[in-house]
Amino acid sequence: MPVNHNLPVRTFSVVTGLFGLFALLSFSIRKGHIEQDAPTGHDSLMIVKDSAASVKAFLEVYNVLMSPRCMNCHPSGDVPLQGDDNHLHTMLPQRGKDGKGVYAMKCANCHQPTNTPGEHTPPGNPNWHLPPADMKMVFQGKTPHELAKQIMDPAQNGNKTPQQLLEHAHDGLVVAAWNPGEGRTLPPMTHDAFVKAWTTWLKTGGFAPQANP
Amino acid sequence: MIRLTVNQKTHKVDVDPDMPLLWVIRDIIGLTGTKYGCGVAQCGACVVHLNGEAVRSCVTKVSRAANQKIVTIEGLSLHNDHPLQQAWAEIDVPQCGYCQSGQLMSAAVLLKENPQPDDAAIDAAMSGNLCRCGTYPRIRKAIHRAAELQQEAGKKPF
Ligand code: FES
Ligand code: FES
């Protein structure tokens, strides 16, 4: 299996604060393991590299990320998508700089903190948005290889460390995919199963499937 | 009791917190300039300002507006003289008029955030407001005119 991703290995402890936004993370090394303490009580990241298991887990993750509930807000253009056929969102709302829309067409003008009852009504979340313009995190059109590389790259993943990626499976907007409002299909596995695949992928090294298998 | 400020006036309303803000504005407070079109955030007839944002009041629960500032078409200006209202009258924008309060409330957010919008900005801001009478070309023209009026008057954007 090709090794497409290597976590930085340090033989000393580092404590760093990122713009005051992220909790302090401590790293230490033990014989081939990299341990990163979870600041929020979620699982902590202990990496035991296993590229075969990692790639297998990512392919499950990929099926979820490419499902409409995830991909529709990770479009290749600047207009979100809708429906199981990933058509452009009616009314063509624009991403905007911060991912929250523009002018009179901001996401939260229609998307409330909770789902609006009934079919064909706006799904809701207190933090509804697309990725921002300077970090588009596109899923649409990405191969498993491309998407895995992108997610592991802090320059393309919203500056997330592997520990933060691990926790991201529990992010409110991620979890919202499993409560999409009436009449919408769910991702192809349960959230628990997704967390398991996601965690396995990261804990086995976050390997990317081959570019041309 | 839910407290909300509508057009700078404080109201206390005894309603289900899940009631759409549109119902409260029209049926409880009695301001009927804001219209009901679709009820599912698809048309823009019900747009009001919630803390300056052009929310769709048909899907906005009144609980979201509690202790917040609402502006409806009746409160867009004191004497119906917002540059947009002047331009709308000058260019005779409305046909049946049903969509127009929503159009104006959306356009007002555009002009506040972009005092000299080009056509692309107008499209981006107004693409969620439908007009069954097809007054879109006049709406576009009137927004450009309102931008001029606003600039001529040296007014701070509303
Ligand atoms: S009535 Fe609210 S958007 Fe149509
Ligand atoms: S003027 Fe009739 S719907 Fe717009």
Automatic annotation (TrEMBL), chain A:
The name this protein goes by in its record: Cytochrome c domain-containing protein
UniProt KW Glycosyltransferase keyword: no
Residue stretches making up the Cytochrome c domain: 94-206
The UniProt record lists the keyword Ribonucleoprotein: no
Coiled-coil blocks: none
Membrane-spanning parts: 12-29
InterPro entries per record: Cyt_c-like_dom (IPR009056), Multihaem_cyt_sf (IPR036280)
Domain of life: Bacteria
GO molecular function terms listed in the Swiss-Prot or TrEMBL record: electron transfer activity; heme binding; metal ion binding
Species this chain originates from: Flavihumibacter petaseus NBRC 106054
Keywords: Heme, Iron, Membrane, Metal-binding, Transmembrane, Transmembrane helix
TrEMBL record, chain B:
Signal peptide span: none
Matches recorded under PANTHER family: BLR6218 PROTEIN, OXIDOREDUCTASE WITH IRON-SULFUR SUBUNIT
Top-level lineage group: Bacteria
The keyword Zinc appears for this protein: no
Name of this chain's protein: Putative isoquinoline 1-oxidoreductase alpha subunit
Any one Pfam family match given in the protein's UniProt record, by short name: Fer2
Molecular function GO terms recorded: 2 iron, 2 sulfur cluster binding; metal ion binding; oxidoreductase activity
Database matches in InterPro entries: 2Fe-2S-bd (IPR002888), 2Fe-2S-bd_dom_sf (IPR036884), 2Fe-2S_ferredoxin-like_sf (IPR036010), 2Fe-2S_ferredoxin-type (IPR001041), 2Fe2S_fd_BS (IPR006058), Beta-grasp_dom_sf (IPR012675), Diverse_Oxidoreductases (IPR051452)
Assigned keywords, A-Z: 2Fe-2S, Iron, Iron-sulfur, Metal-binding, Oxidoreductase
Keyword Cell membrane: no
CDD domains attached to this UniProt entry: fer2 (cd00207)
Domain named 2Fe-2S ferredoxin-type: residues: 1-76
PROSITE patterns: 2FE2S_FER_1, 2FE2S_FER_2
